[in-house]
Each structure stands twice: as structure tokens, then as C-alpha cells.
Amino acid sequence: MDEHARGGPRLSAAEFLRANHDGLLADWHQAVAQVLSGQDPARQPWLIDHMPELLAALADAMELGPEAMDERLEAAHAAARLDAGFNLGEVAREYALLRRCILHRLEAQEQRLRPGDLTRLEETLDRVVTRTMTLFWDMKQRILQTLDRMSEATLDDPDMETLLGRLLTRLMESALTVDTAAVMLLEGDALVVRASVGLSTDEVMGLRVPVGLGVSGQAALERRPFFVRSAATDPRVLFGPLRRAGLRALYGLPLMDGERLLGMAYMGSRTAFAFSDSDVLLFHAVAQRASAHIAQTELHAREHEARKEAERSLALLDSLLEASPVGIAFLGPDLRYLRINGTLARLNGRPVEDHRGRTLHDMVRTRSVGAIEHSLRQVLETGQPVQDVLLEGPDPVRGRAGIWRADYFPVRTPDGVLLGVGSTVVDITDHKRAEGALQQAIDFREELIAVLGHDLRNPLHAVNASAFMLGKVPGLDATALRSVDRIRKATARMTRMINDILDFARSRLGGGIPVTRQHVNMEELCQGMLEELQVVYPERPLVLEVHGDDLWGDWDPDRVTQVLGNLVVNALQHARNDTPVVTTLTAEAADVVMRVRNEGEPIPPELLPHLFDPFKQSSVPRVGNKHRSLGLGLYIVNEIVQVHRGSVRVETAAGGGTTFTVRWPRVPPPRGYLKP
User: Which range has the worst mean pLDDT, 80-89, 148-157, 506-515?
Assistant: First the structure.
């Protein structure tokens, strides 16, 4: 049969490959999908980036001879597969898939090639497979040998800069075209050269490149490799020593720890304009190993620093615990001592080392052990602290009875897991004794004041009545009348002092100053009180000013007049003799505001914070002052106003006089009410 009877003229293998280029690619994709089904979906098809170029190279080789196949193609394929982590079997399988796709398409089209072309195609594929696998194996062996030598460089645990220098040296020894290499670590927002070998080593050490500037800074910002064909003339190369060295090829990689940028590594050549795939692949392996060592070194450094900090903290804690005058202990959930300081150990009568691992009952022999255990278990059960537990018993340190205050609290991890119970014990024996003695002195003083104040009222009333009757005797001359007036003023002042003493005693010893509220008019109360004071102080002008019509409210009339009397007398004592004391009443919606103002020297600033404290003066005492008081007047004023749920404040300034302002709520607000 002739050729037409056999299905037409036979195609050459080159024509077949070119004519079925797209179909073979589609067949190959389908075959790859079948092979990869069920495997890691993240792995990309093996030859997806190289298949079109490989088919075209096969067609040229079938037409021009096997010598037309560029070995660089097989080297690039082998380097790409090795960099992706393929093994030798996977490299062979991808070519087997390609061979099968070609044969299947020939069978499907019932196409026969020219005599000898199929054999030559098979031989060419075999040559490609052989050379690729040989290159793959050689590259892998070279990388493994370099990595072994790099591992040897880490055996004596050198510091990071020494280690990086050794790794770069191994790279230069394995890649003959590499004349310089360096590692730049990220420090803040810049890359700093921390290891360098080869050309310009000393000149580039310590140089900085801001992230985002130059070829290396931009590559670091974008987390990608960079390649410069002529570093000596490229303005993106910021390191002057590299340009002056006449470098041609310059290749760099980011050093990564997961998603974290550690720095950049670069290698340069003065003889080559481009690095071979094998050298680039080797540099990738070195960079990966360097990244791992940098990350590991940083981790070890952080762990070492954390360990040192923990040791320092523990040493500081031990020193603090030992020096603390407070007893401190930590017990586990089983109430066994885990830690205790010397202060508490001495109270238990046993050394510190004897406590560790022992139970509470083993170490504490006093009657208070039951109360202590109850509090500790309460903390464990509720998770809440137990505070201010008083413990009494013999003190083995001082050899007498003692009193201690103990606090117990839960100790937890940061995530809330209960580890045990902490306790602090404070010796308050001396404090309790001093507190008792002070309280006795206070009680005695206040009881004495109360008795004296009560018993002095009867003879004072007799003196006042006698002075009143004496003033009514006809025929008294001016001197006698002045004497009677002085007696009445003195008795009035003594009466106020005794009333203040009794009110003070009631406020401190009883249930507070009593009040009896009535619906009264504030103007009438104040007018009556000022008239009484005017009789006692006829030479001093006492003025009442009223603003508003409604001055009614629910107050204790006797206490209101007592407040006004104390304020006016206080103002008279500190005002200039020729100036009036002005009392102003102002009606507001909820309050009636009372103001008492005098003109005189201002109250010293150091006295203002304690002006309403008992036994305090509103001015600095002067030698020979005839009007010194007990310092209870303003205290009583404040107490009475507080009982009425009002407020009192003072304003004083040089040249402006002194004004006491009292706010009297018409109807007392409920307890606990706070003004807005």
C-alpha cells in the first residue's frame, strides 16, 4: 500500500510536536491532575512552568539534532524541582507522564511518524531525563555537602555573627563564581550588615540601609529576592564598597522566620553577570539555614535573658522575703508549705528549711492553728481573700503574749488556675497596746470635760442671775455699772464655752448632737439672737440683711441660734473694733443661705484644712490675748449643720475679710443623698 492508503503522508516528529503543542499541554494537565488526586493540594503541577518551553525544545532537537537541546534548560528544571523539595522519583515520573501523553496522542490520531523519528524522540527524551536527573542528583549532593559543612560550623556554639561568617564562607567555598557575600539583620527600621566575607568585608560591616531604600531595602519591604546584573553601575546599589569593587552579578534573598522578616542576605560576583541555577539554589539553601540559625539564636537569647531575669527576680524575692518584717508564706492546695520567710518561720519556732513540704499542723503548735486552717480552707473553697484575722498567743521571739493580724489570699496563674494560698502575718502587739492606752486617755479627757461642763453650769447661772439683779439696783455709778457689764459678758462667754463643751461631749461620747425640728422662720431666729448679742456687745455694730420673702423651714431653733451665735462671736473676736459684723439671709428654692462676714485679718492658710477640727483656733494665738477660747465653736457649728444635712464653708482673703456661709436645707434630704 502507498502512503495515502495508510492515512496520508507521515509527519516528522518536529511537525507533530508543533502541531499538537496545545493538545499535549492539555493532556499533560489532565494526567497531572489524575496523579495528584488525593495528594497535598498545595503542591503545584510539576512542569507547569516549563512544559511549553520543553515541548518547543524537543521539536527543535528532532529537527536540528540532539545537540540543539540547551543544557541550561535541564539545569533550570532540575534546580526548580530541587528547590521545591522533589525527590528523584518525582523527577522521573514527570517525564514519564510527558512520554505517555505523546504516545497516547499518536495512537488516538492513528498518526505514524517518519521512519526513525519515534526512536529519535524516545532517545531525546531519555537524554533529557538522564541529564536532568544527573543534574538534580549533583545539585542535591552539592547542597547536602555544603549543609554538612555548615552544620560542622555550629558544633562549638559560636555567637551569631561568627556563625553567619562561617556559613557565608562555606557558600563561597562551594560556589566558585561568588566573590563576596553578606548577611544584613533587621534592626528597627533598617538593615545592618552583621556578617561579611570576600570582597570589601571590613568596609561594609556595620553599614545600614533603611527598609524601602535601595535594591536590598526595597526587596526587604516587599519580601522578595532581587537581582542586579551590573552592581558597579546600578544606582540602586547603595553600598559604595560594592560598586568600587567592580561587582557584576548581585543576588539577594530575604531571611524569613515564617512571616517575620529577619534580614537580607546577598552574594556578588566580579566575573559573572548572572549566577547559575545551581549557585542560586545553593544560596537559597544557605539562606534558609542562616534564617533558622538566626531565629534559633534569637530564641535562645530571649530564653537566656528570661531565665536570667527570672533568677534575678527570684533572688530579689528571696531577699525581700527574708528582710521583710512581715511574716509571709505560700501553701499549696493540700496546705503544705511551699515557701516561707524567716520572720514567720521564727514565729512558728522552726527553721525555714523545715517548713517546705510540711503541713500546717506539723509546723504550728499554738491554739490558733484551727482558726488559721479554717481561713485557709475558706480561701481555697471560695477563691476570695480572708482579711484582718486577729491571732493571739505566745510570742516565741519576744517571750511574751502577742497579737497578730493575718491576711489570706488566693494565688493564681495568669489564666486563673488556683495554685494555693498566700498569707501575711503582721505583729500588732505594740500597736494594740498603744491604741488601748491612747483610747483610755481620750475617754478620760472627754469624760472629764463632760463632767466639768455639766457641773459648772449651776454656779455660772447663779453668777449671771446675781449680776442681773445687781444691775437693777438704783444709784449705781458708772464704774459699778461697767463692772456689772463685764461680769455679764464674762458669764455669757463662759456659758457659750460650757455649751460647746457639753455638745462636744455629746458628739464624741453619745449618739451625736440632738436636734428637735420645728417649722420656724429663720429671720425671726437670727433677729432675736443678734438682739441678745447686741446687749452683750453694745459697742459693736451687728447688722442683719435679708434677701427674699420665704425664710421658713424645718430646723431646730435653739441649734440655729447657737450656730449664728458662735459665728458672730467668732467674727467679733477677729474683726477690727470699728467695723460691723454683717449677717445676711438669702432665700433660695431648697435652702436658706446664712452668711456671716467681718472685716479683719484673713485666716492663715495653714489653719484652713483643720478649721472645723475640735480644739483648733481660727487664728494664730497671740501673747496676752484675753479672748482665747477652747477652739470648739467652729467644730460645734459644723456638727450642727451636718445634723441638719447642710453645709458650711469659709472664704477669706486679704482686704476682703472673712465670710462663713451656711446652707440650711428647708426640708432635710434623705440619708446618703449627694448634691448634684
Answer: 148-157
